[in-house]
Amino acid sequence: MIIKQKKSIGDIVLISLLIILTILFIFPILLVVMNSFKSRLYVSTQPFVLPNSQTFVGLENYINGLTTSGFAFAFLRSVWITISSVVVIIIFTSMTAWYITRVKSKFTKGLYYLFVFSMIVPFQMVMYTMTYLVNQLAFSNVFGIIFVYLGFGAGLAVFMFTGFVKSIPVEVEEAATIDGCTPLQTFFKVVFPMLKSITITVAILNVMWIWNDYLLPYLILGESQKTIPVAIQIAMQGAYGATDYGGFMAMLVLAIIPIIIFYISSQKYIIKGVISGAVKG
Q: What does pTM read for this prediction?
């Protein structure tokens, strides 16, 4: 005998709210995809109307965007910056979190609070100082920006890694030390493999941030070494402020496809890693 449970009013309201939120999140993406197949005139005048025989231009916007924006070089540059920055952030912040957690002193406690404090400092407060310092250190290139991203991404990463490292038994590291491991060997051979779930979470969050970031690459790299967001904005901006909105939408679609695929394939690790770090810490 199958007993059907009646949904309460609260459940119905919750489901309705979730459906509304889903539509609100998906609608902008669908709007961009839809307008990427329209001519530039109708994108401005009829943005919410589906493409028809009069407004549909096929792949013309994609072809024009690819030929005028330098998308291929910007794509490769964005891939290099994103992957390199995330790898550097993960390695340095995980080691820092391990040091802060295992070495109990006023210095490590103060260092931890400095990392936490950096999370709440608005970027606008340090923007001009950061730009001046980057120029003085000759960091205005695709290698120097990696260390800038390390500085801005370290706060959240250290905070998350620290919460997770606290859950790792010290006895495991002591056993490795007795077996003759150096501190670096203990970290990379014993501790770091145990940080897999939180490492993936930190990686996902930073990949989405760095890939979509516009302001830092624009300030540091300028127009000579454009990443995808900068390349799209510059290429689609015509004379006298005229914007090719059709090409702009097409390039946005190409820019968000990799990050959507990456997120969908890795999203299960985000909540798992955040909960693990929060609960165990």
A: 0.83
